[in-house]
Amino acid sequence: xxxxxxxxxxxxxxRDSLHRALAPLLEAPRAWAPAEIVVVDDRPGPANALPRIGxxxxxxVLRGGGHGPAAARQAGWxxxxxxxxxxxxxxxxxxxxxxxxxxxxxxxADEATGGVQGRITVPRPEGRRPTDGERATLGLEGAxxxxxxxxxxxxxxxxxxxxxxxxxxxxREDTDLALRVLDAGxxxxxxxxxxxxxxxxxxxxxxLAAQRGNADDTLMDAVHGRGWRVRVGEEPGGLRGHVLxxxxxxxxxxxxxxxxxLPAGVLGAGWLARTAGxxxxxxxxxxxxxxxxxxxxxxxxxxxPLACGHRIAGALRHAGARRAPGVRAxxxxxxxxxxxxxxxxxxxxxVRPTPGAADAVALARRAGLAVGVVSNQSGIARGLLAPDxxxxxxxxxxxxxxPFDVWRVCPHGEQDGCACRKPRPGxxxxxxxxxxxxxxxxxxxxxxxxxxxxxxxxxxRGVLVPTRLTREEERRASPETEPDPASAVLRLVRGSAP
Length: 498
Fold this sequence. Notes:
The protein has three domains: 6-202, Spore Coat Polysaccharide Biosynthesis Protein SpsA, Chain A, CATH 3.90.550; 205-321, no CATH class; 329-496, 3-Layer(aba) Sandwich (Rossmann fold), CATH 3.40.50.1000. It is 41% helix and 14% strand. It has 18 helices and twelve strands. The protein has a seven-stranded mixed β-sheet, sandwiched between helices. Strands 10-9-8-11-12 form a five-stranded parallel β-sheet, sandwiched between helices.
């Protein structure tokens, strides 16, 4: 069996279980080991060491910035070059032979296969029925296309733009991606490998926080139509019942305010009956623990109006939503990509757009993407250019091709050790922050390896547009290559087409 080339992406919020998820990957024999292991640290705030893996030589850590699991996974696959990208959660327990069994699953996939799912198992509690929170974890067994253990072909991710970062939590983002991959003509299959997901007890009142998922369902409806549950084999949700229960409560309250006791009593009795039945079904499904029974009663009162409220908020937030492109901003390299490369040019009269540059910027704008420029200008550090000369050239570029939403220029030389000079990610991250997007929601279009390396380090998507100055090893190392800037932008936006 030929060994498929694969990378593994693990988003994390710093759980202590992360090392357990990575152990089989780090200990795998060379024949089955991943080409890359990328951990995306999605904790907000300043960078902190991750438990028990900080500085491990085989693990590359990206900063996700707290933008949620969809953006974290997006950053992860953007930064990988392998043919297959396997996604794992940071709390799963892959067995020791998981890498070998993954390779077997991938080797069995034909060219039309866009993704292969692992089988998730969840241990049952011993000697008792599961709690309400534990039942939510048990629901992962048999759930289709969940990214707790899911491998996608990189070409399939490129074709659809990857994850939709409008999904802010670990809910529906995997279903949305699977449906778009299927719509693009790929197939998805269930593999033979298995991965254990520990039984999580859940937080107290966690069922209330879970109602936020109703807002994500409105985005699913907008993008995929109301029949998407049928496509994934999911039972209808309980929203209709919650609407009826909430309507009875609202009607009873209105009747009380109108001093109409009979309608108030009838509506109130209907609300009480439905709420009691809901609480009873939930309480009898779990252990007969008095504290949990009380929780079931309280949350059964609150869940219906919360579900309706989140649904309304989602409908307002996602009104008119369409399939989103994989990126929200395109950051262009300047010299050699947008304009002809004139070494250390400080003369605006020498600015000449490259073929396809104007079309590229126009296409990005028509697609609703922000556009920016990230440019190394070490001529300033070398004393060959004055800052005002660089500014004058940039103004001319803006006149011919812009306006651009953001400019970032690094004036440092290679020996200055700055964080902004490509191939470091500083300019990409800074430009993304000014645009109000995550770096994972950006693409970098450039002509040399340092442009692609900066994108990779930031978790942005990189598309190489080679020129006569592009080295052959840079071409080979870039997973995405196009002949001109316009073709590069078309590649980025075509995944958004319905």
